[in-house]
Amino acid sequence: MPWSDWLPGWPLSHKAQLVTAASASGVLVASGIFSYQALRRTRNVDRLKSSIPDLDEEHKSNRLTEYGGASSLSADPDADSQYHASLATRARRGSYSESLILEQLARNRVFLTPQGLETLRSAFVVVVGCGGVGSHACAALARSGVSAIRLVDFDQVTLSSLNRHAVATLADVGTPKVHCLRQRLEQVVPWCRFDCRNEVFSVEAAGRLLGEMEEVGREGKGRKVDWVIDAIDNIDSKVALLKYCADNGIKVISSMGAGCKSDPTRVLVGDISASIEDPLSRATRRRLRAQGVVTGIPCIFSTEKPGPGKAELLPLPDEEFDKGDVGELGVLPEFRIRILPVLGTMPAVFGLAAANHVILELTGYPHEYLASKARDKMYEGIQAQIQGSEERVARARRFDAVGLKVPVTLTDVGYLVEEVYYGRSAISGLTTRLALARWRRPPEDYLDMSVEGQKRVKLEIRELVCMTKEEVAKHEKEVLKGSKTPEDLYDKNVLDTVQRRMEEEKQYAKWR
């Protein structure tokens, strides 16, 4: 049937009328709904706009600091922060489900065994230094189950901290690092107790900062520290911490310099005496050795060597020196006064390695690292060689050498060979058959016989120079017992090297 035949009669169809009415009512309802939604959106936008204060109006938000962060020393106590703080408080009181904790720590429990995890959960660890290294170490410890952590750091989060800090956000800029860590990690492990100490570590504060924890969850009160992680980059505080731990039998692992390093495969864990290619490690080791601490401190260090195109610590501009004492630029004595280039990933590697060591040690998990340099036999031989050389020089001057005492200890020998001369002869650079000898002919009155029955040579350790045994034999014959001077025997490079090392030791002598 053609369209022209039935189209004119279509409006008269009852079925068609029903379809038309239904369509019209649907369009009307949809139009009403869309109109209402549009009106509601308009009202919501107007309400939001009206809630934004003008720049000259007073409102409840905090002003920003010069760093771009909140002016309060702690995070803004908004509803979310209050919720997590309340949850953490209840969890530490025991209201957090034990089954939930074990589920969160399930992977560690399988790896370390239930007994190992229980030991870890009852441990008390102190992290000193909460920057790039310390923050990653602390976060790893907390996530692994350690239930009591003391955080020690005097500094605040800055914008430049955000390239390497484990948990800091832009909102934390300007806040103390210890509180930043606590507030962020409480959202992950609310049952962990964080004891925040926003202060500088020093010799005077060592007993208090490494003292007992007043409360350690299920273990009760008065728990002694199990491990300390040293993540300090101030040499004075670092040495003070390590010396205190060594003297008081406190287990500690020390992170050395991550600055200017980029190769994670070169990061090692070993005894401090085995650390190489690390200026911070060398300075720390030298100061500790001067105070009698030679081995027994595990440390994290990188053996990566500097090279062309690699980052390095740039010298201060001349205009800074023209202003006066550059030491005044540091926030603390011996604190770095130049910006140290740091690749954000490397402090994390150091911090995680430190936390890993503590976890393995606490749980008794088997592990082996670089051992200390067992060179005591060599030091004993060098000490005997010095004694023999001094006796021969005394006899050449017609002195009775029987009972002659030389004031050089094994610690002195190790310090000179390893820290002052880096295990090399100052004459040839050789590293084998090493010995020590006076650099210049001693004066006529170099024997001290002020105590009856005792003969002692006057000798300061910086007067001794590292050589090979063959070089010592020649030096002793021509300089110490002969008439020549070092200037007659050695070239300018050797003379400058020895002079530089002696001047360095003169500066370090105050730490002995």
From TrEMBL:
GO terms for biological process: cyclic threonylcarbamoyladenosine biosynthetic process. It is a multi-pass membrane protein. Pfam families: ThiF. Its main location: mitochondrion. GO terms for cellular component: mitochondrial outer membrane. Keywords: ATP-binding, Ligase, Membrane, Mitochondrion, Mitochondrion outer membrane, Nucleotide-binding, Transmembrane, Transmembrane helix. It is found in: Mitochondrion outer membrane. InterPro entries: ThiF/MoeB/HesA, ThiF_NAD_FAD-bd, Ubiquitin-activating_enz. It comes from the Eukaryota. The keyword Transferase does not apply. Belongs to the HesA/MoeB/ThiF family. Catalyzes the ATP-dependent dehydration of threonylcarbamoyladenosine at position 37 (t(6)A37) to form cyclic t(6)A37 (ct(6)A37) in tRNAs that read codons beginning with adenine. This is THIF-type NAD/FAD binding fold domain-containing protein. It comes from Viridothelium virens. The lineage of its organism: Eukaryota, Fungi, Dikarya, Ascomycota, Pezizomycotina.
